[in-house]
Amino acid sequence: MSTPETSVRAMKISEFQTKDVINIVDGRRLGQISDLEIDVRQGKIEAIVVPGSSRFMGWFGGGSELVIPWRNIVKIGSDVVLVRLEGLHESQGDGEEKLYIERQERNDRRGF
């Protein structure tokens, strides 16, 4: 797993969540980080989660989420997180729509 470029050595989750996420492929603002996927066995962040167009609906299962693998983060700046998103696909489950970036390897996280 590559490490994004950053001048910061440590950061609180609350500080991370206030940063805008920008796709460097098309310059689009994707939103702010709402959640993290963490591999608790290895103590690593697997992905960041950005709510879809309706954050309120996302809390109740009616919205969509963008799950961005950590390897797609290019740089963590003071105000923004730059990501590289080339292709998206949709997945539905549990009444909630999620947009995923293809992962190089899929791990079953239900075993935690």
UniProtKB/TrEMBL annotation:
<protein>
    <submittedName>
        <fullName>YlmC/YmxH family sporulation protein</fullName>
    </submittedName>
</protein>
<dbReference type="Pfam" id="PF05239">
    <property type="entry name" value="PRC"/>
</dbReference>
<feature type="domain" description="PRC-barrel">
    <location>
        <begin position="11"/>
        <end position="84"/>
    </location>
</feature>
<dbReference type="InterPro" id="IPR011033">
    <property type="entry name" value="PRC_barrel-like_sf"/>
</dbReference>
<dbReference type="InterPro" id="IPR014238">
    <property type="entry name" value="Spore_YlmC/YmxH"/>
</dbReference>
<dbReference type="InterPro" id="IPR027275">
    <property type="entry name" value="PRC-brl_dom"/>
</dbReference>
